[in-house]
Amino acid sequence: MKKIGFLSFGHWSQGMGSQTRSAADVLHQSIDLAVAAEEIGVDGAYFRVHHFARQLASPFPLLSAIGAKTSSIEIGTGVIDMRYENPLYMVEDSGAADLIADGRLQLGISRGSPEQVIEGYKYFGYQPGEGQTDADMARRNTEVYLQLLEGDGFAEPNPRPMFPNPPGLLRLEPHSPGLRERIWWGSGTRATAEWTATKGMNLMSSTLLTEDTGVPFHQLQAEQIQVFRGEWARHDWGFEPRVSVSRSIFALVNDQDRAYFGLRGGDQDQVGHLEGGLARFGKSYAAEPDKLIEQLRADEAIAAADTLLLTVPNQLGVEYNVHVLESILTHVAPALGWR
């Protein structure tokens, strides 16, 4: 059995054929897609977070709205850029969203991806300390956030408060018990996968790895998962970790599918340069169900992960994206033992 969710980048544009022509369109359709996905048996609704772009950004209002309109589907991010976050305020926002969703939040966080603007986090009022990099700042914010999620008091109470205080030091409220175990780190290398395990976070790996050893993407990603689990076993975090991978997978079951994605069947891994280093990008899968099943059976990273996030073409609208997800659940997942 494997949990299957969708991952939306939340694009909007005025381009030809786009059914998301504004931010309002994306937000409303994201809620509708999560509701419809729950109805057909999808396990998770995840959303990308990008600043300074015509894509989804501030995640917690959206996650809260979805939590209020659904009852069973996991709700998450992939990923929140921790260079931009105040970890204390994020504890309050994420705690509230998780309580609204009755404990279904699965938050993916990370150092972030290449930005739309130069050092965009500085516009949010954050910059690395002396001798630190932006990655150091993201990790430090993450460590503070994780510690605060434990729910221990740390703030000295006012001796003459407006409202009565409980005894002892005060913590941030609302506190959501269990959320600490549902934080994921978006890792792009084997080294960061190892670090993720040392911090007691679940592993989230996408279709981009910021290293290249010459082996196929899915094998390199499987190595990353192995490193993570090996390091996790050296610690006692008190819960079993989860691992997700994301893929672009399209089952071609009708003429519309073939028109949109029929030419992608021959996609291969790509190697490029990203922020001064080599990076390996995973291929997309698009084929008739029988062929698709054979291709996916050979993907070592999907086999190693317990959660698969399907990237969806959100600009094609809710109805078509429900079809994309249902096609995988119906024509592909059972043959691979995912259902």
TrEMBL record:
InterPro entries on file: Bact_Lucif_Oxidored, Luciferase-like_dom, Luciferase-like_sf
Residues of the Luciferase-like domain: 9-245
Annotated Gene3D superfamilies: Luciferase-like domain
Family matches, as Pfam families: Bac_luciferase (PF00296)
Molecular functions per Gene Ontology: oxidoreductase activity, acting on paired donors, with incorporation or reduction of molecular oxygen
Ranges that cross the membrane: none
Species of origin: Gordonia hirsuta DSM 44140 = NBRC 16056
Protein name: Luciferase-like domain-containing protein
Gene Ontology CC entries for this record: cytosol
